[in-house]
Amino acid sequence: MAKNKMHALKLNPNKASGWLKIGVTGKWEGHNAGMFELEERDYEQMIFNAQQRALDIVVDYEHATIYNPDKAPAAGWITLENLKVESGNLYCKILWTPTAKKHIDAGEYKYLSPVFVADSYDQVTAKNIGWTLHSVALTNKPFLSELDAITNKQPQHKEKNMPKSLQEQLDTQINHNTKLTQEVVDLKAKVTEQETIIAASHKVATDAIIEAAVTDGKLDEGQKTWAQNYALSDKQGFEDYMSTLKAKSPMSSGEMFANSENNNSAATAAINMTQV
C-alpha cells in the first residue's frame, strides 16, 4: 500500500504543473499504418529534431493539419521548452487558444493524439533524421489509450488555514498569469501572420523584377530559379546584383565560342566554319 502511495506522489507533480503525457514506450502492431515501436531514445530524438527546426509544434483538432491542411486552425501550441522525456515517457505543456479552452471546459474534447513520423528527412539536406513529432491533436478517439485524459482546469492552491484575503490575491495572480500566457500566444500568431504577408509580398515583387530582367535580356530564362533562390537567401545582395545587369547583345546566328581566351587563328577558323 505504501509503495502505491509513493508512485502516486511521483506522478502528481507532473499533472499539477500542467505537464501532459503524449508518448509512452512500447510496441504496437494494430495501427493501420503498420507495426511501430518507440523507445526513450526515440522521444529524445524527436525533441532534438524539434530544436533543430526551431518551430513551435501545433496542436490541432482531429489531425486537421494532415487531413484538411487548408482549414486547420490551431487549438494550441507546444513551445520547445515545453517538451521533455521522463521515465521513458514524452511530456509536453500546451498553450491553449481561447476556443480550445471552451471545448475542453465544456467536456467536448478529452484526449490527445500525437503524430509521430519515422524516417523523417531534413528539408535542406534531405538527410534521414529519424523520428519527429509532427503535431498533436485534440480528439475523443486516440490510438494510444495509455495517455492521460487532459484537463484545462488550473490547480486551486488552496490551504485550509490560509486567510481569505491571501487566497483572493493568489487567485488573482493565477488569473493574471493565465491572461498573460494567452496574450503571448495571440501575439505570436499575429507576428506569424505578418511575416507570411511580408514574405508573399516580397515574392511577388521579386518575381516581377526577374520577369522584367528576362524580358529585357538581362537574364536567361534558365536563370529564373537561381535568381528566385538568391532573392530569398540574400534580399540586398540580389537587389545589388540586379542593378548591375545590362541587356545582352544579340548573337549572330551560328557563332561558336571556344573555352579559351586566345583569339588565335585556329579558334577564328572554327568560328568561320559555322558561317558557311
Low-confidence stretches: 1-16, 152-158, 251-276
How many extended strands?
10
User: Structural class of the secondary elements?
Assistant: alpha+beta
How does the overall form come out from the CA principal axes?
extended
Q: What is the first-to-last residue Cα distance?
A: 103 Å
Give the strand line-up of the largest sheet. 8-5-4-10-9
The largest β sheet comes out as: 5 strands, mixed
Radius of gyration: 29 Å
Helical stretch count? 8
Number of domains: 2
Average pLDDT value?
78
User: Could you tell me the strand content as a percent range?
Assistant: 15-25%
Relevant terms:
single chain; 276 residues; alpha+beta; 2 domains; 5-stranded mixed beta sheet; 3-stranded antiparallel beta sheet; 8 helices; 18% strand; extended; disordered N terminus; disordered C terminus
Give a structural overview:
- With about 280 residues, this protein is of the alpha+beta class.
- It has two domains: about 1-155, no CATH class; about 165-245.
- It has helices spanning about 1-15, 40-55, 65, 100-105, 165-215, 225-235, 235-245, 265-275, and strands at about 20-25, 25-30, 35-40, 55-60, 75-80, 85, 90, 95, 110-120, 130-140.
- The strands form three sheets. It has a five-stranded mixed β-sheet with strand order 8-5-4-10-9, sandwiched between helices. It has a three-stranded antiparallel β-sheet with strand order 1-7-6, with helices on one face.
- Helix 5 (about 165-215) runs antiparallel to helix 6 (about 225-235) and helix 6 (about 225-235) crosses helix 7.
- Mean pLDDT is about 80; it is low at about 1-15, about 150-160 and about 250-275.
